[in-house]
Structure formats: C-alpha cells, structure tokens
Design brief:
The protein is α/β, with parallel strands linked by helices. The longest helix has 23 residues.
Length: 352
C-alpha cells in the first residue's frame, strides 16, 4: 500500500487495526467501493501479531495511509492520533471487522453539509456474524438523542461522522483510560457544544464475534457506562435548576470516590432501570417505580418536546417488551410511558 495522500481530502476515515486478518480485507474493500471518493483513510496497526499488516501492505490505494506501532497501546490512542493528523473537514469512524454500505460516506457528508448546526451524525446499522442478523436504529433527532444520552449511548460508534472543527475548537478527545466506553463519554461532552443526528438508513454492517473489544471487556464496559450515565444525569439536574436534589448527588468526576454519599433515588433508579433493560436484561420493582419518577421530573424540566420524547421512550420499551416479553417489569415500565395500553399487546403478555 502506498503512503501517499490525495490533495486536500474533504473527509478522513480513522481505522484502528489489531489482529483483524479474518475480516480486514472485506472492510478495506467496502471503503474503496464508496461512491464518495474525496477521502483519506488513516490506518493504525496496533502491533498486530497476525497477517493484518501484510494485508494492509498489499492493498493498493493511494488514499489509504498505514502507520504500524511496535507496541500494542489500545485503539483509543490511535483515535486521538487520527483526530490530530486528519486533514478532512469531517472525521468518520470505522472498525476493521465491519462493512460500509457503498453510499455511507456520501450520505453522511451531504447531511452534515446541509446541517451546519450538527456536529455528529450516525446511521442505522445491521448486526451480523455470531448473532442473528437484525437491523437497529438509534434515535434520529437531537432532542431524542439527548434523552437517550442521559442513560445510554445514542450513537453506534463505527457509524459516526464528526465535524472536525468542533473537536479541534473545543479540544475534545477520547479519554483513553475509559476504553471500551470512551465513545459514550466523548459524546456526553461533544453534545454540550453541538447538536447530534442519526440517519434512519442502515449504512453499516456491524459484526459480532467473540474476539471483539466490546465482548472481551463487557464487565468493564458496563461499569464505566454506569459512571458516565451518572455524570450525565447529574448534569441534567444542574441544568434543570433542581436545587433540592443537589445535596444527595456526589460532587465527583468519573472514577472518583463518592465518599459514602448516595444518588438521589430517582437518579439511581433511572440508571438502574434503563441499564437493566438495555444492558443486563434484569431490573427490580423499586427500580421501576423510581424510573417513573425520573421520567416525570425530566419532563417537568423540559416541557418543550416532552410528548415527542415520551413517544420515543414508549417505542423503545415496547420494542424491548416484544423481544423480552417474559418480564412483567418491562410491561409496567412501558405502561408508565403510554397514555393507554394496547389490548392486543397486553393479551400477548398475559399469555406468556
């Protein structure tokens, strides 16, 4: 692979690689086949011990640039290096085991060009590999994204395209010590200074396999996720002016000591219920009751667009109920967000 660049690319793709020989060529070919042509790909080989580097060297496209490390450092290091070295107006993420739809870069580029207020744009995606193939969609609008950000990640990382100027102007970088949840934490800071969006179209195939980073470090990922969500909820109460709730919210940063203090109950319950459903598939009755309080207080603070957000939450819970209907807690949680219970859905639940 030649290490030359196209002149002034409009877009930079950052692609970390580590022992991806089984999937790497398919990933590279999907980038090469993009209908959008004016881009560079910064590839960082994180000291792979398999045939990944040979595959990279054999791939002949002047837009693809490879840097090989002698020491394995973890992909977040290279994400930050990529931000510093990128020359494109926009930065797109890609993982070495995933596959891009041919129009992915074109459609995200055109969206960001026509929406200057948006600094981060994701897409729908299809999971495949060691799981049943299925399509997923993150929340589309900025208001829905901010609601999801409170307790969960509103973007699928490999689908993201970001406005480089926002990252540079606000000195925003990934926190390398928070792998593999560094993306969720970055979005929390990024959305303080810009708006977000997700395209409804499925433009990336997201591969599941036992060796991927998120699978190998799942417990750590969940633990850090909960800390990031806690910070987001705390920020919500500060913005909302809920002075009565501040005394019980610990004044700490990620990884800090909470000094024996406990979160306000609806904050704690909100996090536990949302993460229990979406991440661990389990929750408790007290979590459910607290979650209802959490939703009510959120809408009290942000009445504008509350109906739209409530529909989004209702839709999400209904989806979870359909897939995991054996949990009565999911059903009751869905009812909290719904003005009325659809009889057919209730009957399906009662027959389980």
């Amino acid at each position: 692979m030649r290490n030359s660049f196209v002149t002034d690319p409009l877009l930079t793709v950052i692609l970390p690689v580590y022992n991806a020989e089984l999937y790497l060529k398919e990933c590279l070919e999907s980038l090469k086949a993009q209908t959008f042509r004016d881009f560079e790909v910064l590839i960082f080989d994180d000291a792979s011990t398999d045939r990944s580097n040979g595959i990279l060297m054999a791939f002949d496209d002047p837009r693809f640039h490879v840097e090989r490390s002698r020491k394995n450092q973890g992909y977040a290091v290279y994400l930050n290096q990529g931000i510093e070295k990128a020359r494109g107006r926009y930065i797109a993420r890609m993982d070495a085991d995933d596959i891009c739809h041919p129009e992915r870069l074109q459609k995200q580029f055109e969206f960001l060009e026509s929406h200057p207020e948006v600094g981060i744009c994701g897409t729908g995606y299809q999971v495949f590999g060691s799981v049943e193939e299925k399509e997923f969609q993150k929340p589309l609008q900025d208001a829905e994204i901010r609601w999801r950000l409170m307790l969960d990640n509103p973007f699928q990382h490999p689908t993201v395209m970001m406005r480089r100027s926002v990252l540079i102007d606000h000195a925003l970088r990934y926190r390398e010590d928070l792998m593999p949840t560094e993306d969720y934490e970055l979005w929390s800071r990024l959305l303080e200074v810009t708006k977000g969006a997700n395209l409804s179209e499925v433009l990336l195939r997201y591969r599941f396999h036992p060796g991927q980073e998120s699978s190998a470090r799942r417990e750590r990922q969940l633990a850090i996720h909960e800390k990031v969500a806690s910070e987001n909820v705390k920020a919500f109460y500060e913005i909302g002016g809920k002075e009565d709730s501040q005394e019980s919210i610990p004044d700490t940063k990620l990884g800090g000591d909470e000094s024996g203090k406990e979160f306000n109950l609806d904050v704690k319950w909100g996090i536990r219920f949302r993460m229990g459903l979406l991440q661990k598939g389990e929750t408790a009755v007290d979590d459910l009751v607290g979650y209802g309080d959490f939703i009510e207080r959120y809408f009290d603070c942000y009445p504008d667009g509350a109906a739209n957000l409530k529909r989004e939450e209702q839709k999400e819970l209904e989806k979870i109920f359909t897939e995991k209907g054996e949990s009565w807690v999911v059903m009751v949680g869905w009812m909290l967000c719904c003005p009325k219970v659809i009889p057919g859905l209730l009957r399906r639940w009662m027959r389980r």
